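Side project, low priority. Logging it here so it doesn't get lost.
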Amino acid sequence: MNDPKIMQIFSDVGAVVSDSHFVYSSGRHSSVYINKDALYVHSNVISALCRLMVRSYTADQIDVVVGPVLGGIVLSQWVAYYLNQKRSSGETLAVFAEKESDGPDKHFAFHRGYDRYLAGKNVLVVEDILTTGGSARQVIDLVRQHGGNVLGLTALCNRGNVQPEDVGNVPIQTLITVSLETYTEEDCPFCQQNVPINIELGKGRAFLAKKKTA
């Protein structure tokens, strides 16, 4: 069950937006959008949320925190910071995976020498919003390819009912869970009713640009 205080934090900064026609990164459509960018502009809010994200982990067991670019950079830094506050010795490092491509075929890779920090290490993967779990799964697979042992996945919000089996059988912990109806473009009732696509939030602008050139 969601903690009302955490839900209030999301609400207070306008991170839950409804009654519009949104396109997600996954390509699915919905009438509700979790605006993670409304969280990131408030460093005190992100700091407080990341502190909550580490509360159930044993800090000494986590060697590295990994997040996907871009939001995962911020989350990995703060989560590692609070894990280090709880450690009895040693240090938890923070690294991030970068996109090699975008869109439905996007995939991630480690650059800047970050891959050398993973082999034989216990890793916690962080994500902001889980919709299909696709990005998190790719990062988890990438960590494993470099010899890392993924202990868990922690996220701000699970809005797609993502389960451990969707992300490589890794335990998932999220601050809030939001049940949303999402649709493919073909089945989207808002598309069928010609409801304008929101181009300010989500991937609506890119979606329309692609439709125009198709």
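Brief comment: The helical segments are 4-12, 36-40, 43-53, 71-86, 134-145, 189-192, 204-213.
Revisit when time allows.
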